[in-house]
Design goal:
Strand order of the largest sheet: 8-11-10-9
Strand content: 5-15%
Radius of gyration: 23 Å
CATH architecture of one domain: Alpha-Beta Complex
Helix content: 25-40%
Distance between the termini: 34 Å
CATH topology of one domain: Flavocytochrome C3, Chain A, domain 1
CATH class of one domain: Alpha Beta
């Protein structure tokens, strides 16, 4: 109810009026609405085929222009500062769990600094990059989830990793999303001969069935036929002018690899896309640790349940971001200050030089374990092996982390290992197939 009641007003006030996101409009200048998977009617506003990017660009521009906001680029969070874990004051262990900021790694100067804060908001995104195939950017390796877990925050619903049915498949191309809006506009999933197949798996919804059903259907077809991918057919179902008008970014990105989506079938495969679980938060974005908030994909508000509906995550981030800010403003004088002298500086003297080959190999190992054992279809033997191998690997990584100078990739490797274990443990404990968690 929070999303439905507060979302439309915030879209108008913040995205449209304040930061000026240029959403698509109809000929009579009304917001254009699209239908996506699992939706019964068109209800999604969009900016061609790059809605998230358009929102992000507008928000960053507004943040850069704000006089009271300081942006730290080329910095990576290492760990949350929790007095019970980090304070030199021995009495801090008797205080309720709280957050006082974070240790931050300056990648340019290669030093770790203490960033103290009365309130800290985690907005670190998801963990798709712990899987071999993912639509996510490189930084989506579970950093916020792992930091919050180490600090003692509650994490829930971690087994629910949503796999997007359609990412571009090409041996020389980076993985990128082929938006669900393409199927909303009429495109069909087909084999190389152009024959659709989703009617066999979801007779009513067909290609617009919920994502978990579509992704598993593609997976089943690939296994059954021993093929590397299936295809999206836009050319037979959507007029060329509409394709060029509504999907310019997809058109351009596919053309780079010789695929003309107005003439050719588009090769696609499923990939890890969205983390429906996360750090537990209440309606104000508060975690179970005092002074620590979480918003966006790193948080679990309960909105997405076991399987997120397309595009609701953008609205969720907007609503809970606003709620967290409101709560902080109303309660900013109630929180005790932290004495900087109680928080030790980071010491890395005498540590070893990081070996990129070790980091790269371990990260690749995590991705293959997660894709093969904790992917679209999970079984007890696969999960049991994944848990055993990931726990053994984490022991090695933790030792490596303790004796090695920090780099962004080492921080990410440590977080990815912990995030992978969190997901796998949750998948092992939940023996009921529901939503995007499917066990055979």
């Amino acid at each position: 109810s929070i999303l439905a009641e507060e979302g439309p007003g915030l879209v108008k006030k913040i995205l449209l009026e304040k930061v000026g996101v240029e959403f698509d409009r109809s000929e009579n200048d009304e917001l254009s609405l699209a239908r996506e998977g699992g939706h019964s009617i068109p209800r999604i506003i969009h900016a061609t085929d790059a809605t998230g990017r358009s929102i992000e660009i507008a928000l960053i521009k507004a943040v850069q222009a704000h006089p009271n906001i300081r942006l730290l680029t080329s910095h990576t969070a290492v760990d949350l500062l929790t007095p019970s874990h980090h304070s030199l004051n021995r009495l801090s262990v008797y205080e309720p769990p709280s957050c006082a900021g974070a240790y931050i790694f300056n990648r340019t100067e290669e030093i770790v600094v203490r960033c103290l804060a009365k309130n800290t908001i985690l907005a670190t995104g998801g963990l798709g990059k712990i899987f071999l195939r993912s639509t996510n950017p490189n930084g989506a390796r579970g950093d916020g989830l792992a930091m919050a877990y180490r600090a003692g925050a509650n994490v829930i619903n971690a087994e629910f990793v949503q796999f997007h049915p359609t990412t571009f498949y090409h041996p020389n191309a980076p993985q990128h999303l082929i938006s669900e809006a393409v199927r909303g506009a009429g495109a069909r999933l087909v084999h190389a001969d152009g024959e659709p197949f989703m009617q066999h798996y979801a007779p009513e919804w067909k290609d617009l069935a919920p994502r978990d059903i579509v992704a598993r259907s593609i997976h089943q077809e690939m296994l059954k036929r021993d093929i590397s991918n299936v295809y999206l057919d836009l050319r037979s179902y959507i007029p060329t002018r509409r394709i060029r008008r509504e999907f310019p970014n997809i058109y351009d990105s596919c053309m780079k690899y010789g695929i003309d989506i107005t003439r050719d079938l588009v090769p696609v495969v499923p990939a890890a896309h969205y983390f429906c679980g996360g750090v537990w938060v209440d309606k104000w974005g508060r975690t179970t640790i005092r002074n620590l908030y979480a918003v966006g994909e790193v948080a679990c508000t309960g909105l997405h349940g076991a399987n997120r509906l397309a595009s609701t995550s953008l609205l969720e981030g907007l609503v809970w971001g606003k709620k967290a800010a409101e709560h902080i403003l109303r309660n900013s004088d109630k929180y005790p200050s932290v004495h900087i002298e109680d928080i030790p500086t980071w010491k890395d003297n005498g540590l070893e030089t990081p070996d990129p080959a070790l980091i790269s190999q371990d990260m690749s190992y995590i991705k293959h374990i997660m894709w093969n054992y904790v992917g679209l279809v999970r079984t007890a033997p696969r999960l049991k092996r994944a848990i055993r191998e990931l726990r053994n690997l984490e022991v090695e990584i933790e030792y490596f982390y303790r004796v090695t100078r920090l780099t962004d990739s080492l921080i990410g490797l440590r977080n990815a290992a912990r995030a992978a274990i969190i997901v796998t443990d949750a998948a092992w404990k939940n023996k009921i197939s529901i939503g995007c968690h499917y066990r055979e």
